[in-house]
Amino acid sequence: MFIKFRIVVSVALALGLVACGQDKQDETSAVDSKVQTAEAISGLDQGLALIDRDGIEAHLKYLADDALKGRMTGTPEYDEAAAYVAGHFAEIGLEQAGDDGWYQAVPMLARRIDVDSAKVVFHQDGVENEQTWQEGFVMGGDTVRAETNITAEVVFVGFGIHAPEMNYSDYEGIDVEGKILALFGGAPDTFPHNERAFYSSGLTKAEEAVKRGAIGTISLRSRISQKRYSWKRISENAGVRPGMSWVNLSGEAANYFPELQGAALLNVPPAEDLFKTAPISFEQALDAAEAGTTLSTPLGTEVTLARKTDHETISSPNIIGVLRGSDPELANEYVVFTAHLDHVGIGVPVNGDTIYNGMYDNAMGTALLIETARAFAAMPTPPKRSIMFIALTGEERGLVGSDYFAHYPTVPTDSLIANVNLDMPLLLYPLADVIAFGAEHSSLEGVISDAIADEDFVLSPDPVPEEVLFIRSDQYSFVKQGIPSVFLVPGFTSTDPEIDGGVLFNEHLQTHYHQPSDDLSRPIDWDSALRFARANVRIGFAVAEDEKRPTWNEGDFFGDKFAK
């Protein structure tokens, strides 16, 4: 009994001493953690102090200069821009993180339609009605084939969407096997924002069309589309620039649907003619689209879609640099900043100008990417996680560079914990808010909201859900790999009550977007530009320092679709 008592007391004393020692260790660890946090915050301030107008402006003057001829993917001028970014990554002190030094070569198959061969013919009541190139229709080249020529019945299928979870299907009761589909772009505005974005994707629609046996598509312009851009804007550069697809390791073109042997986009007058033999008019089809109801029906006509295509194998690089994290374990995880470096190159002259410089789209995003890297590299102690910076190729050709990287990352996919994408940040006026498209889908929303508050910004929701911007830039390539991502842009609210940011945004889309006038003559509110740049750094810093990696919200539409 005494022996047992002594053992119990000895164990109790030992446990007490261990607990006491553990308390001291916990206190020391807590103090160390606070010191490290304070040092990290101090380091953040040192990095933020480097962001200034001179640095950003110097990049803009180089990247948006006429000498680079609009930085079209696959051109020598794009390669010059790539070398410029790589040089700055080296000067900043990043590590090379491509497959070949700074570069990840993206193999592509470029296609250019022979416009003289492009043909759309309506066969109605024994009469052939051939449409006119650019005036009545436009089309791109086939991804792989040198020549395609199909004639088939046409079936109108609304938006071309099958969404069982929404109790909605444009295909219900309609046989489209061997048919050409006539469909609107986008999705019903009665859909919630998430579903609307997902089902607006052309790839999603193509997959559904192929699954049901369709052999071609004719795209129609909804009233939203007609309001957004004039037909002149859409058609004037048709056939001028090549389409591009990345090529996988087996030599196959990505996102290619060989079953779809023809495609065209119709102007409104030919679309009205297409419905002349149908049980409904084009106006009724427009009404149904606007109401978000299905009105699918055979159109009682056949159409011929024909074209010849020239192909060229090219390569264009993503430029990738990394700042290694300071934590032994978390340094193996990466916060990824992206901005596309390419623009649309040379086009039809507007007021005598043929160079589409892309100052805001996306020389500005690239300039901010470089200066974000500079700010992080200047911190005495890097953040816990590694930070990856990618200047992407081929965004304007269909998110080509980002989709390739997402499929063939230069680090393990599961080490990519978040993407912050910069694309066309319109810094035109004194800013009060920031929009982070996609933030509401994951834990990034709270992190971003807190981080930008230090620059006196508030986080605003998507003000233009009809534009489905969440799927229209490079962050969507990361989302489809299950990586929480955001597309960071200035908001529509100005600190000046006399300024309506939404009006200026729409004015830019209508007048300057993908036009020669998006050049160095465009105004920049420099105070807002610097605050926005610092907010970008703060967001990345907060994510990189967080002990927990970002997670999709429970039950989130995109998380459920894509989370690995």
Q: How would you briefly describe this protein structure?
A:
The protein has 564 residues and is an alpha/beta fold. It is built from 16 helices and 21 strands.
Question: Would you kindly provide a written description of the structure presented here, covering whatever features stand out?
Answer:
With 564 residues, the protein is an alpha/beta fold. The chain folds into two domains: 50-107 and 313-562, Zn peptidases (Aminopeptidase); 111-311, Glucose Oxidase, domain 1 (3-Layer(bba) Sandwich). It has 16 helices and 21 strands. It has helices at residues 2-48, 53-63, 76-92, 193-200, 202-211, 223-228, 231-235, 268-274, 282-291, 359-377, 400-407, 444-453, 475-479, 501-511, 526-545, 557-562; strands spanning 95-96, 103-113, 119-124, 127-130, 137-138, 147-156, 162-163, 168-169, 180-184, 216-220, 243-246, 263-266, 297-323, 334-340, 346-350, 353-355, 386-392, 416-422, 433-437, 458-460, 485-490. The strands form three sheets. It has a 17-stranded mixed beta sheet that branches. It is globular, with a radius of gyration of 27 Å. The termini are far apart. Mean pLDDT is 93; it is low at 1-35.
Radius of gyration: 27 Å
* Residue fraction in strands: 15-25%
Spans of at least 5 consecutive residues whose pLDDT stays below 50 are 1-35
Fraction in helix: 25-40%
Number of DSSP helices? 16
- In the CATH classification, which architecture of the largest domain applies? 3-Layer(aba) Sandwich
Average pLDDT reading: 93
Q: What would you call the structural class?
A: alpha/beta
Profile the largest sheet: 17 strands, mixed
- Tell me the total number of β-strands: 21
Q: Characterize the overall form.
A: globular
CATH class placement of the largest domain:
Alpha Beta
**CATH superfamily annotation of the largest domain:** Zn peptidases
**CA-to-CA gap between the ends?**
59 Å
Structural domains: how many: 2
The CATH topology of the largest domain comes to: Aminopeptidase
